[in-house]
């Protein structure tokens, strides 16, 4: 099959909605904005942002369009039975959201129609039709997630098919078949999808799978083989219970395995595929969780082999023992460390950040060695682009000496205030040198890190106006090893309120205050660097 004859597969990401149901995860609006940017960096076709009207966070998130190229999608219920579309607050809330598309979740199991909705089967079909029609008339791309579709099909095939057909007939661009409880097996998926294609064309069908049997990715691939052309999933497979289909595993499989590359194409470039390991790790750092070292394609050990017969063979011919080349997914081989390959990865990252560097520059060897040493100490630069850019520019001589920190001190005092209440008070003192002049600032704050932040930014002399819009918007701490002498990693997200640009900086130390100060100092230096460049 020629390139022109290949069928298009569409990637639909549900991290910001389905993934947000993961135990222990609660995205803020600011975090959703950053994740949406990360998804666009990866190149997915649809970003489902949440359920406007269901909670203040999602409502605010949909107050403006959050994507540049991906179709920004709102999620919500079909209209209630017994109400008109114009008189249903939930549906009207979806229509008023700043979204390109609306994904309606609809009951497709007659048992749920009776028990959960309390209406007749016919009324449910009417709700699907009217909701899709309302979205299409409002100029939105409409799609329907048929909830518990496979269970519903097993119980009542005729009704499940009727739900899918009325959605398509009403104008839904996609009818998505959902394995909501994750209990369906690949052979069942393939057989049922084949029957659905008798009433809905495959290029209008999508698949949404959960990982409760550990087969979400396999089920998604089985559905593609059976004819669906939209695949839903989440970054790193997060989701409620056991998670969702992992797009970070699905994307390389669809783009690198011949049985798919010969028939299909995705909207991702080879360069974006090479970025997938960095995207996966960045997302984990944002969640403040350790990346899965054994994750397919992107894990630290995905292309690692211990000493022995395999290692010996890999040294001679790596392609015989690796199912894909690690460089294709932005990963690296762990048996033989190639300085040239490491430098190639480094140059690619510098190019992405806009840092000009000649591959023959001898300073790159020192930078590469320093990055490796720092990563061994606990730094994770995939999630801290600003700190990495500063490290690189310093190695290449591109960072001016704006100021020099001479010392800092933090005091935490627990005492009774004037009202007799027991309170903790943090005070920080920071000394900086600017053009040979020492400036000392003292500040109190809500905790030692806030006190340091206020003190450091209190008086930077001629640079003060450049950081007037700077604010710290997120702060994450991870303990890298146990014990009282544990190494601590701090990740700080900052924002310039004037330009709305965000950046991440990192610090690592056995002292949490020292690690925090490293990240704070990098944040301010980065802001000054960008202000000077502007």
TrEMBL record:
Residue ranges occupied by any Pyruvate carboxyltransferase domain in the UniProt entry: 9-274
Class of the enzyme per the UniProt entry, highest EC level: transferase
Transmembrane segments: none
SMART domains: LeuA_dimer (SM00917)
Swiss-Prot/TrEMBL keywords: Amino-acid biosynthesis, Branched-chain amino acid biosynthesis, Isoleucine biosynthesis, Transferase
Membership in a protein family: Belongs to the alpha-IPM synthase/homocitrate synthase family.
Protein name, as recorded: Citramalate synthase
Lineage, top ranks: Bacteria, Pseudomonadati, Pseudomonadota, Alphaproteobacteria, Hyphomicrobiales
């Amino acid at each position: 099959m020629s390139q022109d004859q290949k069928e298009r597969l569409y990637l639909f990401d549900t991290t910001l909605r389905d993934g947000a149901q993961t135990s222990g995860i609660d995205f803020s609006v600011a975090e959703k904005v950053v994740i949406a940017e990360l998804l666009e960096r990866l190149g997915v076709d649809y970003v489902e942002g949440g359920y406007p009207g269901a909670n203040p966070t999602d409502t605010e998130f949909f107050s403006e369009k959050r994507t540049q190229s991906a179709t920004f999608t709102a999620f919500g219920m079909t209209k209630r039975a017994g109400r008109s579309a114009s008189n249903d607050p939930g549906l009207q809330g979806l229509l008023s959201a700043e979204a390109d598309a609306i994904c309606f979740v609809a009951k497709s199991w007659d048992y749920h129609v009776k028990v959960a909705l309390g209406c007749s089967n016919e009324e449910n079909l009417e709700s699907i039709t009217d909701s899709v029609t309302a979205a299409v008339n409002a100029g939105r791309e409409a799609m329907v997630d048929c909830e518990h579709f496979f269970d519903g099909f097993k119980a009542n095939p005729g009704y499940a098919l009727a739900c899918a057909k009325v959605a398509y007939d009403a104008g839904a661009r996609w009818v998505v078949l959902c394995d909501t409880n994750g209990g369906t097996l690949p052979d069942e998926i393939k057989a049922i999808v084949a029957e659905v294609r008798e009433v809905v064309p495959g290029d209008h069908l999508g698949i949404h799978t959960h990982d409760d049997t550990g087969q979400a990715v396999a089920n998604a691939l089985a559905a593609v083989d059976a004819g669906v052309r939209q695949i839903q999933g989440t970054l790193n497979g997060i989701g409620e219970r056991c998670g969702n289909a992992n797009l970070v595993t699905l994307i390389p499989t669809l783009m690198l395995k011949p049985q798919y590359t010969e028939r299909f194409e995705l909207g991702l470039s080879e360069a974006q595929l090479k970025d997938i390991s960095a995207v996966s790790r960045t997302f984990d750092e944002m969640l403040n969780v350790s990346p899965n070292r054994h994750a397919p394609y992107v894990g630290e050990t995905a292309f690692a082999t211990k000493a022995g017969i395999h290692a010996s063979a890999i040294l001679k011919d790596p392609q015989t023992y690796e199912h894909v080349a690690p460089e294709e997914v932005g990963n690296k081989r762990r048996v033989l460390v190639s300085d040239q390959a490491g430098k190639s990865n480094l140059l690619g990252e510098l190019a992405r950040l806009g840092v000009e560097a000649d591959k023959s520059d001898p300073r790159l060897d020192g930078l590469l060695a320093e990055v490796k040493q720092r990563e061994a100490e606990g730094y994770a630069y995939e999630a801290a682009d600003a700190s990495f850019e500063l490290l690189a520019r310093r190695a290449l001589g591109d960072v001016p000496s704006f100021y020099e920190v001479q010392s800092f001190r933090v005091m935490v005092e627990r005492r009774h205030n004037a009202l007799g209440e027991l309170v903790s008070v943090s005070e920080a003192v920071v000394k900086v040198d600017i053009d040979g002049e020492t400036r000392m600032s003292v500040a109190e704050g809500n905790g030692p890190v806030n006190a340091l932040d206020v003190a450091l930014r209190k008086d930077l002399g001629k640079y003060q106006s450049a950081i007037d819009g700077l604010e710290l918007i997120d702060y994450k701490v991870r303990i890298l090893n146990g014990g009282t002498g544990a190494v601590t990693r701090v990740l700080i997200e900052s924002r310039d309120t004037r330009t709305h640009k965000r950046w991440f900086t990192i610090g690592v130390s056995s002292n949490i205050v020292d690690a925090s100060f490293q990240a704070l100092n990098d944040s301010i230096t980065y802001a000054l660097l960008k202000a000077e460049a502007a």
